[in-house]
Structures are given as structure tokens and as C-alpha cells.
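Exam revision sheet. Question 4 asks you to relate a sequence to its structure. Input first:
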Amino acid sequence: MLLAGDIGGTKTTLGVFTPEDGPFSPLAESTCQSGDYPGLEVMAADFLKKTGLKVNTGSFGIAGPVVDGRTVPSNLPWLVDQEALAAALNLSTVRIFNDLEAIAQGVLHLRDTDIHTLNVGSAKPEGTLAVVAPGTGLGEAYMTWDSERYRIHPSEGGHSDFSPSTPTQIELLAYLSKSHGHVSCEMVCSGTGIPNIYSFLMDRGEMEVPAWLSEELTEASDPTPIIINAALNPEIKCTICTETLETFISILGAEAGNLALTVMATGGVYLGGGIPPRILTALQSGSFMEAFVRKGRMTGIMKGIPVHVIMNPKTALIGAAITGLERMGEKPNNSDDEPDWLRFSH
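Answer key, C-alpha cells:
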């Protein structure tokens, strides 16, 4: 049996899988708050104890840069070492890798019902694919065709420089530079970035902050859901929250377009992470695609790139499970004998 996990800065989902049942049908599954545990070893051990299942290998997608089998997750005070993790859980093998690698692996197996298309475009067969995933942080990856299958390339592009594309965003960059020095894309294009945009607009002093909003934000441990909910609620007129979300969407569109242009993602761009499905109606309003295609002489090319929102919240877990199951040696050499879950949708 395989223990697979999607380890994020806010929450972690673990599951137990077998080659026979595949990555879509875990024998056991659980989601918990990452910050409630001192490390992945304790969390995984607690999960396995509750399930009573005996696993012998592990596969974990983790939100952070993985180098030589070790990582300090970007938004968690953990150190994860795959050899130490294997020893702690008494597993024969463990592999840890960037969570965007897990999402990208999952994307290759998505069904039509797992995505919502923002721009149909014209996908090129075997064209490069890109993934941009705003959640607690901002993850990015891309996949290239090697004549037989897609190869996944994780990155830490979310920590590259924020490049403003409007006068308001230029002010935002200057505002954050004063307190942070380096301003990354993640700092304005993620769950942790939305409060930064809100703070900028509030300190700008051009919009009223309702008393009820100020009170809720003061009491909240995480202001992001409050800001998003207020922006999306048609019964509440909260200009500062609406403007915060619109700014976020414009930045996300521009950054997704940057990645698409950088890797020439003619096969399509996929928006992953927890935020895009939550704000789907706002993404459809037009400002996302306006920012996505606004690339000067390249605008015509950008309009032809398909853009999809990943609606299946378990995509990263599915990808982590697929990666682990394939490494268990269960993939037959004869593709005609492959189980359905191993057949790529591209």
C-alpha cells in the first residue's frame, strides 16, 4: 500500500492507495490543518494509527523547494527529509517533491468534469502545458512533451519579482517595497498576498472601511476568506474588498500570461490551488483574461492559448498518488495493458 499526501501551508490531505484501486479511490483519506502538527512525521503517524492500515511506501507533494530529498516548506516551520520520514514511519521508500509537480501530474489525468474553461483557445497537440496555483502561496510548473509522454518541470516562479502592469499596481509595488524590500509575485498573488493588497488600499485612504469589516478582520486569524466573501457577496457593497479582489485577479491574469509566454504553453494553462474555484464567477468577469492576453505584440498568440480552472480539490493528492503508484513498478511495459487511471487525457 502507498501513503500519499498533498502538504500545503494551510492544510494537508493524506490518503492510502493501492495499484488495484488506483489514485481516484483511496482506502482511507483525511484532511487536517498543517499548523496543528510539529511535522509531517507526527501527522502521518497519527493518520496511519487511526486507519489501522499498513503501508510500505510514501509519496508526498509539498509546498516548497525540494533539494536532495529535503525541504523547508515555504509557509510551515517544518524540516522534511525523505530518508528521516521513511525511518520514522517504517517505510521502505519515501519520495518528496514540489506540490506543483503533484498538481501537474494530476492535471495530466483530469476528466472533463474536473475543469472549467475560461478561454477555449486552440490547443496545440502535444503543446507545452503550464500550471499556476494560488493557494496559501503561489506555485508554478510546466509540462513538456518528449515524444512519448509529458515531463513535469516544477519551479519556484512564484518567488520571482512582482512586475506591475497598471498605475495602481506600481503604487502597490512601491508600498510593499518600503516594508519588505523584495516583492515577489506570491506576496500579491496568493492567499497570503490578498491581505497585502487590502492593506495597501486601506492605507491609501481612498475607500471607506465598513465598521463590521474592520471588526471581523481584527478578530480573524486569517483575513483572506473574509475579504473574498465580502467581495463576492452581492448583498454587501464593500468597495475596498471588491477592489482588492479585482486587483488580485488582474495580477493573477498577468502572471499566468507571463508563464504561458515564457514556456510557450500552446497546450493550455491550468489554474490550480484553492483560490480560483472559490472566485470562479469573478474570474469569468473578463479582467483575468484581459490581463492574461495583454502582452503587446504577442496578444494574438495569447488569445489562442486555452485557460482552464481546476475544479477538483483533490488534484494534488491524485497526482501524488499517481507518482507513488508508478514508482511502485505497477505500470506495465505494454501500454495496451495499462489500467484506465494511467491513460493520459492529453
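Marking note for examiners. The domain at 112-311 is CATH 3.40.367.20 (Hexokinase; domain 1).
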